[in-house]
Amino acid sequence: MTAAIQVIIVNFNAGETLTRCVQSVLSAREKLNITIFDNASADGSAEQVQSLFGRLENVEIFCNDENIGFARAVNAAAGMGDEELLLILNPDCELLPGALGYLKQALENDPDAALAGPTVVDRTGVIQKGTLRRFPDPWNSLVTLTGLWRLGRWFPAYKGVNRHQSRLPESNAMAEAVSGACMLVRRPAFESAGNMDEAYGLHCEDLDLMYRLQQQGNHCIFVPAARVFHQQGVSSRSRPFWVHRQKHLGMQRFFLKFQAERYPFPIRWLVIAGIWLRYLLTLPLVLIRN
After folding, report:
1. What residue ranges do the domains of the chain occupy?
2. What is the pLDDT along the chain (290 residues), one digit of tens a residue?
3. Phi and psi at residue 94, to the nearest 5°
4. Topology at the third CATH level for domain 5-235
5. Does pTM top 0.90 for this prediction?
6. CA-to-CA distance for 68 and 10, rounded, in angstroms?
């Protein structure tokens, strides 16, 4: 696999983290092109990146007059390139040394893998939730929400959505889902799956893509040696309530799109009610944090 990698970064008010993100990508020893799609940021982050990197041949920056959404921006950026691999990267992420090479090598070594994801850590090196996870369904979501996932160590039926950090694989492993903050995807698989679903506002569009890749016979691969720093929530700080609502709309769309038909109507109703009960119960946390 000798083709270049198209790195897609969708920015919205990511501040200084966008600059550090681009710097980390340019430090990777891989042949790549960077496409930055700015969704009408008002914090000067796009202008700063333009002034620092705009003259580089392998960096393109596009500034929208309005926020067209994450999925739509990714699809638009992907349509501008023809590289074999797509790295979809959050603007508040930084690739740690060697990360991109490990992800690329994992796909080279596994022809049935369509998407590779790294270990995602915070500044202290603690592994973040969502690094390695299962597709949410009514049961494992309930187990996760109630804290019963702690029993999963002894009772497999109580495993939640997230794989427990202390039991992550030490070598490359097949996965249902990995973190959407950093995803290396084969372009042919991405396109045959129908690209990103633009009906999502924000959140769960990554799970949706991974689920559709699985439906067409591919799988994701978790690459523990690849490490990426993620400063969560930077872009959402300017509109926390909108993001909180979109997260739950995403949960609802994922359930209705892929799982609802498996369950009788009363169960469907309970799942939808549970999603919005969670929204109401966690809304005070949004108020406290902001």
Report:
1. 5-235
2. 445 899 999 999 999 999 999 999 999 989 999 999 999 999 999 999 999 999 999 999 999 999 999 999 999 999 999 999 999 999 999 999 999 999 999 999 999 999 999 999 998 999 998 999 999 998 888 888 888 878 787 888 888 888 876 678 999 999 999 999 999 999 999 999 999 999 998 899 999 999 999 999 999 999 999 999 998 777 667 788 899 999 999 999 999 999 999 999 999 999 999 999 999 999 988 877 76
3. -135, 125
4. Spore Coat Polysaccharide Biosynthesis Protein SpsA; Chain A (3.90.550)
5. yes
6. 10
Paired tokens of 114: 């369509």
